[in-house]
From TrEMBL:
Coiled coil stretches, renumbered: none
Protein name: Anti-sigma regulatory factor (Ser/Thr protein kinase)
UniProt keyword Kinase, yes or no: yes
InterPro entries reported for this sequence: Anti-sigma-factor_SerPK, HATPase_C_sf, HATPase_dom
Family matches, as PANTHER family: ANTI-SIGMA-F FACTOR RSBW, ANTI-SIGMA-F FACTOR RSBW-RELATED
Organism (species): Cryptosporangium aurantiacum
Gene3D superfamilies: Histidine kinase-like ATPase, C-terminal domain
Keyword terms: Kinase, Serine/threonine-protein kinase, Transferase
Phylogenetic placement of the source organism: Bacteria, Bacillati, Actinomycetota, Actinomycetes, Cryptosporangiales
Length: 131
């Protein structure tokens, strides 16, 4: 199989509202998908953490409806979250006293690669995790 093509059907979610309940629904769906794809436990947990962090950023910062795509590409799974905010993602300085604000640092530590694609109508933040 060619690493450029998807070996399994990607999740192309309907648009979700920027609410915490949507994260629970998406996480459940992605977990089921990863099980069907036979993604090993540690990699599946890493992917689920990336999903949670990217969605938390949409809810906390973009505050717009979003779409998520999860696509297996050979030995990686790509998670991509599209929102309607044009503001680029911003990695914060580490504040050891803060309870939050480490999401993109976690994504960067877990993912082989991550980034974002900006457009006139929003952006897509993506991360690729090895499986």
């Amino acid at each position: 199989m060619n690493a450029e093509s998807s070996c399994d059907k990607p999740l192309l979610a309907e648009e979700y509202p920027p609410l915490a309940g949507a994260v629970t629904e998406v996480r459940r769906t992605v977990r089921t998908m990863l099980t069907q794809w036979q993604v090993p436990g540690p990699a599946a947990e890493d992917i689920l953490l990336v999903v949670e962090e990217l969605l938390a950023n949409v809810i906390d910062h973009a505050q717009t409806p979003f779409r998520i795509t999860v696509d297996r590409r050979g030995s990686t799974v790509q998670v991509a979250v599209r929102d309607r905010s044009c503001a680029p993602p911003r990695m914060r300085e580490v504040d050891l006293t803060a309870l939050r604000g480490r999401g993109l640092r976690l994504v960067a530590a877990i993912a082989q690669r991550w980034g974002y694609d900006g457009e006139d109508t929003g952006k897509t933040v993506w991360a690729e995790v090895a499986v």
